[in-house]
Amino acid sequence: MQTAGTETPIQQADLKTYESPTQWTPSNSQSSLADSSSSIETSADPSDVGSQTTSSDASGSDVVDYYAPDGQPVLRDSSSNRSSSPPTFGNITSKSGECVVRNPTEYITNEELDWVWEHRIGPNADTSDEANWNVMANKNFIMDHLVANNGSMNYCVRWDSTNTLSKSVASKFQGILTRHYNEWNKWLKGYNCWPFEDIKVNMVGFATKDASLLDWTDDSIGQIYEGDLDASEGVPQCPDECYRFYDSVNNVWSDTSACKGEPFDVFLRMTQNIEYGFGFDWGQEVSLNNTLEHINDKNMVYIGHEIGHSFGLPDFYVAKDKPSKDFPRCIMMAASSIIITPSDGWMLRRVLDHVRSV
C-alpha cells in the first residue's frame, strides 16, 4: 500500500511493554482516572521503580500495581470504565473577536506543553530519534482529513487473522471508533474555531485474504476486498486506488477516481499475534485478541492511544521523552490511564494552535 508523506519515512509509534515486575500486557492495562484533579496517594516511593505496590487514590478508583522503570504508575485493571475527563478551558490568551485560544490552569502546565511541542512534535524536534516527528511537515494527520472531509473519516478494516470474523462483531467497529474519535473531539469543540461538533466514522471496506474468513457476503457494512495483499508483509489491504491521502511531494490529495468503491482515509488493522499497537497518519494497528476481549468496553486503551498517534501525539514512556518525571497521567502514557485526560486534550489543542497558525 502506498504510504502518505512520501518525502520522509513513516515512523510508527508503538504502545510498549514493561517487563518489571511482570510484562505490561492488555489484560492488566485497562485502568481509569478518578477525575481531572485527583492524584494517586500511595505510601510507595515512586522512585522505587519496578517494585510491586498496591495503592489507590482517595476514591479507591485507581490502583497502582507498580511503577515502571521511568517512574510512571502502572494501574490495575478497573471495572470502572468511565468517559474521558471533562474538558477544561483555562485562561483566554486570544484577543476579542479572534478564535478563542487558551492556556491551561490545572493538571498540566503551559511550560510542559511548550516542551512537548519544542522537543517532540514541532519543527525543532530531533527527528533522528524515531520517537519524535514534525507534525508541521505532514498534512496527512487526522485533523487534515477531517477538514478535507467536512468532519468525517472513512475506514478500511484489514483483517490480519486466520480466524473467522462474524458480522455481529464487525458491526461494532464503527461504534468503537466513533466513540473514541469523539472523546478526543471533546477537547477541540469550541476551541480555536474548530468547526466540528461531532466526528462521523464510516466503514467503507473490509480486506481479507479469503472471503470465507468473513461470515457475511453482502456490502452492508462496507465493501469486501479479497486477496489484495501488500507487498511488504502479505497483509490484506483495500485497493491502493481507493487510498485517499495528502501527497506531500506534489502537495495535492491523491486521485481516487479509479476506486470502484468508497475511498478510505485510514485503516484499522486487526493483527492476531501482537500484544501492542501502532498508530500514525495511516491509521491504527491493534491487537486482535485484546480488541475482542474488550469489544464491549466503553473505553479501549489501545484504540484511544493509537488514535492519539494519528492526531500527531507521541508516546511518553521513558524519561528523555517527558518534560519532567512527574508528567501528569495521559492516555499517550497509556499504562497510566485508560481515558483521555487533560494532558492529552491540551496537547491536542496545541497541535491545532500551530496547524492553524500557518
Automatic annotation (TrEMBL):
<protein>
    <submittedName>
        <fullName>Uncharacterized protein</fullName>
    </submittedName>
</protein>
<feature type="compositionally biased region" description="Polar residues">
    <location>
        <begin position="86"/>
        <end position="96"/>
    </location>
</feature>
<feature type="region of interest" description="Disordered">
    <location>
        <begin position="1"/>
        <end position="96"/>
    </location>
</feature>
<feature type="compositionally biased region" description="Polar residues">
    <location>
        <begin position="1"/>
        <end position="11"/>
    </location>
</feature>
<feature type="compositionally biased region" description="Polar residues">
    <location>
        <begin position="49"/>
        <end position="59"/>
    </location>
</feature>
<feature type="compositionally biased region" description="Low complexity">
    <location>
        <begin position="27"/>
        <end position="48"/>
    </location>
</feature>
